Automatic annotation (TrEMBL):
Keywords: Membrane, Transmembrane, Transmembrane helix. The chain crosses the membrane at residues 12-36, 51-73, 85-105, 210-233, 254-274, 294-312. One of its GO terms (cellular component) is membrane. It is found in: Membrane. InterPro entries: Ostalpha/TMEM184C. This is Transmembrane protein 184C. It comes from Aquatica leii. It holds the Pfam family Solute_trans_a. It is a multi-pass membrane protein. Its main location: membrane.
Length: 418
């Protein structure tokens, strides 16, 4: 009997998908009739019609995403890449279920929206890590960028000084994206506190409520993250070409950034009166702007699920010789130790950078030259000493710890100049 059980478990790849499909179909077949019966008894009002239509799209989006997630779990042959892909793919079910539950339980919308907002920051982080892991597996990314042409800033930040190609460029892009992972959950927590205390004022653009200020903070943070992501893509487009990055970039921007600005636009249109709000409606517990935003998200997640299915396909990771355990693959995507490490690194670098700038020192200690390619080629083959004597102060030691300073390269650059 024990052997039969072990044999059955070892063939999990063959039965896990039919089992999930069966459970999902069973849940749909039980829930939908119950909802329809209750709606008919209550008179099937406009709000319930919205919930039903939105639920149909959510019901189509979830199995498409779960299918792709399961396929990645089954063919978990590239953990450093697929762990982040699976986390990204979870975005569609989380967004869809969250938006639908907000329509269903409007009074708890502020708490459910907090989950979605925090996860959208998590998705940006995982997309950044996916790109970095892919590039670092193929090459020495920083050394490769050092010999590439300078990437110029684009409008509206074209007046900024260029970020030196190489380590400085990678680190500024990385931490420019990572700051959104810190700012978004923080502003979300503040919005929940403000809602509880009655000073949030969602959808109101007034000076005595917190909503416009938190909106401005989120907008600025998201713009910085998106800008860094675009610059990073421009710098590495050639290296990323084998993995077809453009559809992936568009999927992330469409779901995260478009849904955010869509919500802002709807709030502005409702506040200005361009979208009519009937204040006499008794069943409008949620507000027309939030109802419209969540209804549209339910529909959009169905399209996003299809786009993710093709953009983050599992097919390139199929390897029949791999013996990856499903439990290990499942547990790996919930291991957030990498997130904790990167946030600690980000906070350490930001705090030290502020300290250094107060004292009039630059953040990065790079040997600059008019010809980066020539400096790299002419660098001596002998390595400079790497003992602790190279650190002139505690800040430089901290930056070396976090990978933001390369004193060895500075020493070699100075030898070249001499």
């Amino acid at each position: 009997m024990g052997f039969t059980c072990r044999n059955f478990i070892s063939k999990w790849r063959y039965w896990i998908i039919p089992l999930v499909v069966f459970l999902y179909a069973l849940a749909v077949l039980v829930f939908v009739p119950l909802f329809l019966v209750k709606s008919v008894q209550d008179g099937f009002n406009k709000r319930e019609q919205e919930i039903l239509i939105a639920g149909v799209f959510v019901g189509l989006a979830i199995p498409i995403s779960l299918w792709e997630i399961l396929q990645h779990v089954i063919h978990y042959t590239e953990p450093k890449l697929q762990k982040h892909i699976i986390r990204i793919l979870w975005m569609v079910p989380i967004y869809a279920i969250n938006a639908w539950l907000v329509l269903l339980y409007p009074k708890e919308s502020i708490y459910m929206d907090s989950v979605r907002e925090c996860y959208e920051a998590y998705v940006i982080y995982n997309f950044m890590k996916f790109l970095l892991n892919y590039l670092n597996a193929e090459m020495d990314l920083e050394a490769n960028l050092e010999v590439k042409p300078q990437v110029k800033h684009i409008f509206p930040l074209c007046c900024l000084s260029d970020w030196e190609m190489g380590r400085e460029f990678v680190h500024i892009c990385k931490h420019g994206i990572l700051q959104y992972t810190v700012v978004r959950p923080l502003t979300t927590a503040i919005s929940v506190i403000c809602e509880i205390t009655g000073v949030y004022g969602e959808g109101e653009f007034k000076g005595n409520v917190a909503y416009p200020y938190l909106l401005a903070a989120n907008n600025l943070s998201q713009f910085v993250a998106m800008y860094c992501l675009v610059l990073f893509y421009r710098a590495t487009a050639t290296e990323l070409r084998p993995m077809k990055p453009l559809p992936k970039f568009l999927c992330i921007k469409a779901v995260v950034f478009f849904s955010f600005f869509q919500g802002v636009l709807i709030d502005i249109l409702v506040y200005s009166g361009l979208i009519f709000h009937n204040t006499n409606t008794t069943d409008d517990e949620l507000g027309v702007s939030k109802r419209l935003q969540n209804f549209l998200i339910c529909i959009e997640m169905c399209m996003a699920a299809v786009a993710h299915h093709y953009s983050f396909s599992h097919k390139q990771y199929i390897n029949e010789d791999s013996s990856q355990n499903c439990c290990q693959a499942f547990l790996a995507m919930w291991d957030v130790s990498d997130v904790q490490h990167d946030i600690q690194e980000h906070l350490g670098i930001v705090s030290s950078s502020i300290s250094r700038r107060i004292r009039g020192r630059s953040m990065y200690n790079f040997a600059r030259g008019s010809d980066e390619s020539a400096n790299l080629v002419s660098r001596p083959s002998t390595s400079a000493p790497t003992d602790m004597g190279l650190y002139q102060n505690d800040d430089e030691e901290l930056f070396m710890k976090y990978g933001a300073v390369d004193n060895v390269r500075n020493s070699a650059g100075n030898v070249d100049k001499v």
